[in-house]
Amino acid sequence: MIEVHEALAIVLRQTPYLGSEDVLLEGSLGRILAEPIQADHDQPPFDRAAMDGYALRAEDAATVPAVLRVVGEVRAGQTSEASVGSGEAIEIMTGAPVPRGASAVQPVERTRRLEAGRVAIDSVVEPRQHIAPRGSEIRAGDVVLEGGAAIDPATIALLASVGRARVRVGQRPRLAMLATGDELVPVSETPGPGRIRNANGPAVLAQARWAGAHVRSLGIVRDDASALTAAIESGLDADVLVVSGGVSAGAYDLVEAAFARLGVEVFFERVAIKPGAPLVFGRHRRTLVFGLPGNPVSAQVTFDVFVRAALLRQQGARVVGRPRVDVELLAPLRNRSGREAHLPARVRWEAGRLVAEPLRSMGSADILAHARANALVILERSRIDASPGERAPALLLGNFLERDGVSLP
Ligand code: AMP
Ligand code: MG
Fold first, then answer.
1. Cα of 183 to ligand 2 centre, how many Å?
2. What domain range includes position 267?
3. Ligand 1 neighbour 181 (Cβ under 6 A)
4. 269 CB burial (10 A radius; 0-12, 13-18, 19+)
């Protein structure tokens, strides 16, 4: 049995980068940038007014009230031919280039328009106020994004502003998912005696899509050596093949034997993680092969730690793990497993601290506890007890933001 970090290092070492492709900016959300991005021009590209008001010479309004002659107007999208002379002002709109001669913008709220094209300035004007100088945010040629960054909406705004209608991103891996077990029926069927619905198939496909993969379901296969071998073989053309169930010690856990028959090179078959432990990782030519434990929480947690990391690495991502935060426990936790425990919890901000409320869980089959969690609190192998008030690391799950925002009444 190997440690979680050792297993993860092995997975990442065996994971090839899949190359890159050009996509339209609109289609790049969630993809991984495959090139550094340089600014094509200064930002702002000109000295930009930050307020609606009057462009003027600050020294003309050093003592107030001052009355200035309005000699023109400049709107966003225009440039002004006129320049601001002594005793003059030009009416200006937010986003417009500041005309020559002006050294400050006075907001319209702090002026009074007088008749005969004049304006009164009633409060003192500081030099350079409300002007964003050319290049003050970004200089032409600056690297604004590094390769390996995940593209989110704010990144898309940045890419748009530097003129990237197309961007180079990592190729999306193709993932195939096979659920094993005589007891499984598809979600559309009512389980007969002794049968249960296939939860892992849909869950893994969803997790894989969230990590950027193209997914293919191989459905359900019975615990039968030849059926299993044929089904696994049909998924070996994918970049990643995930099989759930059939990797523990039972008489009908036949997945590893099928891997061996198909020539899958296996690197490990047990990891010191709870939920999890039985977790097979191997490789068949360029295809990564994972045998996840059948219990749904074990399957989801081990997917998140290992398979998700591999999918992101295949796309060239720099960060392949969930965000890790330090939390204060609100209730005791136990870990007698001798493995690194990932325990379901709800993390929230309370009185200036990040706290974790452990969720009651019946264990690795408790789909409900896992679905209610927004984080997994980690107790290392050696930490068998943790008391309220003690601190522990926690992994924030992908549902964290969606589930824990502010809800409207
Ligand atoms: P196994 O790893 O095949 O021994 O399965 C461990 C436990 O997980 C058993 O209780 C199985 O019934 C259950 N299980 C296996 N596959 C799935 C699945 N796809 N969906 C829900 N539960 C499953
Ligand atoms: Mg099984």
1. 8
2. 4-17+172-314
3. yes
4. middle
